Amino acid sequence: MSTAVRALSLPPAPAGGGWAATPSSLLLYSSSGKTLHELGLDYVASEDMEGSFVTRRVMRGGVSKDGRFAWHWEKVTTLKRERTDTVLASTRAFAYLGTNGYRLWSDDDADAPAREDPARISDSGETVLVRELRGKEWSVAAVDFTGNRLMELGAGTRIESWSLAPTGRFAHFCWSGFEGPLVCSFLNIEARTKKDVPAADLPPGGLRVLDDGSVLAGGRLAFRLR
Predict the structure, then answer these.
(1) Mean pLDDT in the chain?
(2) Which of 145, 138, 1 has the alpha carbon at shortest distance from 63?
(3) Which residues, 6 or more positions from 82, have their beta carbon under 8 angstroms from its beta carbon?
(4) Residue 216 pLDDT > 70, yes or no?
(5) Which one has a higher pLDDT value, 35 or 7?
(6) What percent of the chain has pLDDT over 70?
(7) DSSP calls for 150-204
(8) Residue 7 pLDDT class (50, 70, 90 cuts)
(9) Are the C-beta atoms of residues 73 and 128 closer than 8 Å to each other?
(10) pTM metric for this prediction
């Protein structure tokens, strides 16, 4: 891509500097609008000459609405090609970044299924919801921008859906244990409280938690968090 075409495709710099996102990268701008740093967002798979081993590298990221904060996640997995692929090695690195580009905190347990994000970020960027994997067990953590853990909850062996309200006050995630029923956990992060509801007891349709604590299921009000 030519410099002129690339310049036209770049997002505008946040006022006073900060982060902006394109489909392929996160960009850090100075207060004068100069590009200071770029972090790639991509999926790359490479095979050795014999095709016995595959290395997969995933990079994902996001930016707060005002550009003050950004997160970047990289996962590298090496597989041996067999009848069933065997994972030989896997490393993960999640970084939460401030306006000056410095890393505010990190999380090497952050993970996500293929093509999904390991994090949700509030509009202000001051609250982050992170999916973590230790062994075969998932958990969900609510973390503030300094790295302080506000809540941390087990999420069984799979997470089916999750969301964070725009202000970061409320969140939800639906999870289950091995061959167990699906449960939806609704969080009042501000009050540090949790409400568990069997998914079978909720109206059908996608779940969404609003800034006032309203829980919508299929676009209809199911209940309000207190």
Answers:
(1) 91
(2) 145
(3) none
(4) yes
(5) 35
(6) 95
(7) EEEEE-BTEEEEEEE-TTSSEEEEEEE-TTPPPEEEEEETTTTEEEEEEGGGSPS
(8) very low
(9) no
(10) 0.88
DSSP code for 75? E
DSSP, residue by residue, 6-63? HHHHSPPPPTTSEEEEETTEEEEE-TTS-EEEEEE-EEEEEE-TTSSEEEEEEEEEEE
Burial class (CB in 10 A: 0-12, 13-18, 19+), 150: middle
**Location of structure tokens 């005002």:** 66
End-to-end Cα separation, the chain, in angstroms: 52
Q: Residue 65: what are its φ and ψ, rounded to 5°?
A: -60, -35
3-class SS at 4? Answer: helix
What length does the chain have? 226
**78 and 88 in contact (C-beta within 8 Å)?**
yes
Which tens digits make up the pLDDT trace of 9-54?
677 878 889 999 999 999 999 999 999 999 999 988 777 756 788 8
Radius of gyration of the chain (CA): 19
Eight-class DSSP state of 85: -
pLDDT digits (tens, 9 = 90+) for 55-100: 889 999 999 999 999 999 999 999 888 878 888 888 999 999 999 9
């489909």: which residue's tokens? 23
- 10 Å CB burial of residue 52 (0-12, 13-18, 19+) is exposed
